[in-house]
């Protein structure tokens, strides 16, 4: 199932101001492809193994993850914050990866990072197109019934200049929840892979 939420925001034509067109698409169709990318041997189950909420009160599926909105400027960041709750009877590790992102120019200066429970993972630079899909951005252990706060961040460094104008980036993130295996001597199994695309960010 493909769910698309789209917002277009325009900005004045300042040289270093960016106009943002956001498509907050949740691409469940990419489940199998990304599962194979991260862990080919893992078994992936129904995405409903995790619940999601934008406010930590109203819970549901992937449609609860908010789209990124706003204007991206040098030394600025756009974010999407949501909560992921482990409703299984087993503990596990919630992992956030870089997805199949794309960019119209290798010179466009942009980065991504992920905060979990307000602790930031490493910043991953997308400027030279060398960042690989499947790069882990952050992870945390989540016990049964526990909730993790996740913030997906797309930013532009302060030194970004004219090379970032009139270009676009399609950042993508993927969630994976790897539960503990209860079989003696068994390995871990990834039961949930969710693919989120946060649309296009355009330079003006």
Automatic annotation (TrEMBL):
Protein name: Uncharacterized protein
Species annotation: Rhodococcus xishaensis
Taxon lineage: Bacteria, Bacillati, Actinomycetota, Actinomycetes, Mycobacteriales
């Amino acid at each position: 199932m493909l769910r698309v939420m789209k917002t277009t925001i325009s900005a004045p034509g300042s040289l270093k101001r960016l106009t943002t067109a956001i498509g907050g698409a949740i691409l469940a169709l990419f489940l199998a492809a990304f599962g194979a990318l991260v862990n080919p041997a893992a078994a992936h189950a129904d995405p409903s193994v995790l619940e999601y909420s934008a406010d930590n009160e109203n819970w549901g599926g992937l449609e609860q993850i908010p789209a990124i909105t706003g204007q991206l400027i040098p030394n600025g960041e756009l974010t999407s914050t949501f909560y992921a709750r482990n409703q299984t009877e087993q503990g596990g590790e919630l992992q956030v990866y870089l997805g199949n992102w794309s960019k119209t120019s290798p010179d466009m200066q942009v980065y991504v990072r992920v905060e979990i429970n307000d602790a930031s993972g490493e910043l991953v630079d997308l400027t030279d197109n060398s960042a690989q899909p499947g790069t882990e951005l952050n992870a945390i252990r989540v016990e049964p019934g526990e909730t993790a706060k996740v913030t997906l961040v797309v930013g532009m460094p302060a030194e970004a200049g004219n090379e970032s104008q009139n270009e676009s980036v399609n950042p993508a993130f993927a969630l994976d929840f790897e539960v503990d295996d209860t079989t003696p001597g068994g390995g871990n199994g990834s039961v949930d892979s969710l693919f989120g695309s946060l649309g296009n960010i355009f330079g003006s």
